[in-house]
Amino acid sequence: LLSAAGMAVIYCDPRGSTGYGREFAKSEYAWGDASYDDLMAFVDAAIENLPCIDPERLGVTGGSYGGLMVNRIIARTDRFKAAVNQRTFANRATSYGTGDMGFVSDAAEKPRSFADYMFDRARKSAVTKIDAVKTPLLLLHGELDYRCTMEQSEQIFVALKDRRPEVPARMVIFPGENHNLTRTGKMRSQIGHLREMRDWFAQHLAAQENATHG
């Protein structure tokens, strides 16, 4: 749908992804800086090799872990002029014991006081970097998402409105939908989800073009 709207779509598997062996998929790559570095290097290579890509009109989107990466990316760079965050993961502290993953990912981090443990989870969460965000952000989330619960998007949205009110932000919740909204959700929800993303990018990337050439 994005391609049909005249947008070039680029995608890669950064370190931390599965399918390339255990070394490539190590957790320290996925949760450290390696995945971010790889994604930025890929964008640079795409710009260098594909003349159709305008480096002044870049958008970024991702869902679930990809939603976490969207948060990390827009907190570290303003090179993207619009972002769409799907079923985001934003706060490791409030995700503890909730949803269908509970505390599984932190099984090796237990030999501390619980207070220190939760403080560390909060300190490392994407929502704490909200003051650095300058990118217009659309948040899309299923109401009954039990993997990344809806409050994860709410925290990012409310924090942006509170801390960065000058940054355009919109949150759209899809009633009755879960983490698989884009794959097995009701057809009207899937269509609405795609339209929201397409229109957000069209609005903010086109606005950048008009500002550049006007």
Give the mean pLDDT.
Answer: 90
Count of helix runs: 7
**Low-confidence runs of at least 5 consecutive residues:** 208-214
The major sheet is characterized as: 4 strands, parallel
Radius of gyration: 18 Å
Oligomer: single chain
Strand residue content: 5-15%
C-alpha geometry:
globular
- Largest sheet strand order: 1-2-3-4
Question: In whole angstroms, how far apart are the ends?
Answer: 27 Å
Summing up helix and strand content along with how strands pair, one would put the structural category as: alpha/beta
Helix content: 40-55%
Structure overview:
This protein is of the alpha/beta class and 214 residues long. The chain is built from seven helices and four strands, in the order ααβαβαβαβαα. Strands 1-2-3-4 form a four-stranded parallel sheet, with helices on both faces. It is globular and about 55 Å long.
How are the elements arranged and paired?
Elements: H1 27-31, H2 34-49, E1 58-64, H3 65-76, E2 80-88, H4 114-123, E3 137-142, H5 150-163, E4 169-174, H6 181-184, H7 187-213
Parallel strand pairs: 1-2, 2-3, 3-4
Notable traits:
single chain; 214 residues; alpha/beta; 4-stranded parallel β-sheet; 4 strands; 41% helix; globular
